[in-house]
Amino acid sequence: MMGRTHALTGWCAGLGVAPLVGSGALHEAVVFAATTAGFALLPDLDHPGARASRLLGPATAALSWLLRRASAGMYAVTRLAGDDDSTGTHRHLTHTLAFAGAAGVATAAGTQTGGMYAVAAVAIVGLLLAENALGDWLLPVSLGAIAWWAVTSPGGLAELAQLSGWLGIAVALGCVVHCLGDALTESGCPFLWPIPIRGQTWYELRPPAWLRFRTGKTVENALIAPAATIAGVLLLPGVIDQLAPATEAVLSHF
Ligand SMILES: [Zn+2]
User: Fold this and answer.
1) Any residues with CB less than 8 A from the CB of 175 and at least 6 apart, and which?
2) Are 175 and 44 in contact (CB under 8 A)?
3) Ligand 1 centroid, distance to 101 Cα (angstroms)
4) 157-176 b/e (C-beta count within 10 Å ≥ 16 → b)
5) Res 215: pLDDT
6) Which residues of 218-229 are buried (b: 16+ CB within 10 A; e: fewer)?
7) What is the Å distance from ligand 1's center to 92 Cα?
8) Could you tell me the CA-to-CA distances from 253 to 40, 116, 212, 246 in Å, in that order?
9) How many domains does the structure of the chain reveal?
10) Residues of the chain with pLDDT under 50
């Protein structure tokens, strides 16, 4: 799956989950969804050519290298006889539920300890990643939402420091959405590592063949990406409520 589709599906999932974590207002949902969209690109940090690895030049390139080494090491140590003869770098460690959970917990704990600046750092990385994949419109929209938040909340911007747990959920959700997207493409993901399945700890879970589609091919470009774009607008808080009376008014003329 391409970076843009990962970010788009992350955006939709973020908008869907935002009300469940108490972020049902438009500005909160936009910030939550932008964070989820950005971190839906994080698992591909294990590939040197991915958007996440190229985002901040040598800094993210070094992080990507470290992650590949960690993934390869983990693969070598935990693989079973049934596992493929692979280097264990791309689409391994970072494409598991364990990684999504660990990234979420680390984000929540790190931002809890680091306070407002750590929260801002995570949010900025998420926004930059999402903007890189979805386009420049996202930055003014998200910054506007954050400014609105600061103006309307009684605690001002300092209140953003309370968001640590919430950011952890956005990061973990983004990683899970990424893996689901990859599993729909030809490759599959070792979601349940290190639980052994059919003699493999890195068993790649994937849907039946008729449900899978090729990365960057017709189905993704002509179906998934446009559908996710439409859903990404319809899921914004208030849009359906606004559209319902308008649609009824139009239909009543027929
Ligand atoms: Zn991936």
Assistant:
1) 39, 40, 42, 43, 94, 99, 100, 103, 104
2) no
3) 16
4) eeebbebbbbbbbbbbbbbb
5) 66
6) eebeeebbeebb
7) 9
8) 43, 53, 42, 11
9) 1
10) none
Compute the distance between CA of residue 12 and CA of residue 122 in angstroms, rounded to an integer: 20
Distance 50 CA to ligand 1 centre (A): 9
Query: What is the residue range of 134's domain?
Result: 3-251
Distance 14 CA to ligand 1 centre (A): 18
Distance CA 69, CA 73 (A): 6
* Length of the chain (residues): 254
52 Cα: distance to centroid of ligand 1 (angstroms): 11
What count of Cα atoms within 13 Å lies in the side-chain half-sphere of residue 80? 12
Q: What is the pLDDT of residue 156?
A: 66
Q: How far is the CA of 194 from the centre of ligand 1 (A)?
A: 18
What distance in angstroms lies between residue 110's CA and the mean position of ligand 1's atoms?
24
- Total-model pTM: 0.87
User: Which whole-number Å values give the CA distances from 184 to 71, 77, 181, 200, in the listed order?
Assistant: 22, 28, 5, 20
